[in-house]
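input
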Amino acid sequence: MKNPNTNKDITISTSGTAGPFIIVHNSLTDKVTNLLKENDVQYSIDKDAINEFSENADDVINLHGEPDLDAVQKLLDAIN
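output
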């Protein structure tokens, strides 16, 4: 799956000290969070966290607990 703002693949970031997170265009948040729910991955959402373009904000999905990041990335890669 690609972020429509950047045309880059959606990936899990582990940079910084905040823990793993996923940046997604707000139009894709429901699709991604539904997938996380279905696979018992704990998360929280920071809505419109990245707003470079007024109408095309990105949300940040913070992953909690100790998720298998490789498995979560494979789930993200499988989304069309």
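quick obs: Residues 58 and 67 are 22 Å apart (CA to CA).
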